[in-house]
Amino acid sequence: MQSRRVGVLLCDDLHEELRTRWSSYLSLFEVLVADEAADLVADGYRVHAGEWPDGPHSADAWLVTGSRASVHEGLEWIERLQALVRDIDDARVPLVGVCFGHQLIHAALGGRTGRSQHGWHLGSYPVACEAAFAGRSGGDALRLFAVHQDQVLEPAPGFERLATSDHVPWYAGWRGSVFTIQGHPEFDREFFTALMGRVRQKAGDAAVDAALEGLSDQDDTPAVQHFMRDWLRGHRPARFQG
Hints:
Blueprint: E1 4-10, H1 25-33, E2 40-46, E3 61-64, H2 76-91, E4 95-98, H3 100-108, E5 112-115, E6 121-122, E7 127-129, E8 141-142, E9 147-148, E10 150-154, E11 160-164, E12 172-175, E13 178-181, H4 189-203, H5 205-213, H6 221-233
């Protein structure tokens, strides 16, 4: 069986205290792409540290990760990553963006990102599907772990919205061979809870305690992971063949 190489464009490293339990940020995405088919292999590029692929055809599919950085900071590596995203999009290679990656892809393709006026968005806050995807129908609730202050303020042209919330209008969407989502499908409850120990220093006790107390029993992470794996394989339902 021929493996498909997923180029994981890593935009951050794990905090040192988290590396006692998880070896690297890449390891979370290695788990995400793995399933019984075992046909997806993750290749990591720490682009924030100067590790770059040769170009859009260096992998069969691409995934842009989360980051402590902000898209609108204007850092050199962020501008270079936006240029690579445009090349990947032009080449029609499957592309997925998560959290910071979601925002960066929209910014690279003509959208706009910025700080949310509502501050930190933490935990499995209420999100509704606007259209069917990941086994959910339009109007269904969608629950993932999330950690962000920034968000997409204006989507890139041509994107169809898939999920939204009261304070995060563009939570998930797609265009052509691109799928992006604000939540973190690479997180599980254990990782999210551990991460909150670090986020508490920045977001404050009240926000973190509310997020931990408000975690839902509903967890759509497995369904979204399955959807993402199929997207990375290039296996998309007919309605997504845009």
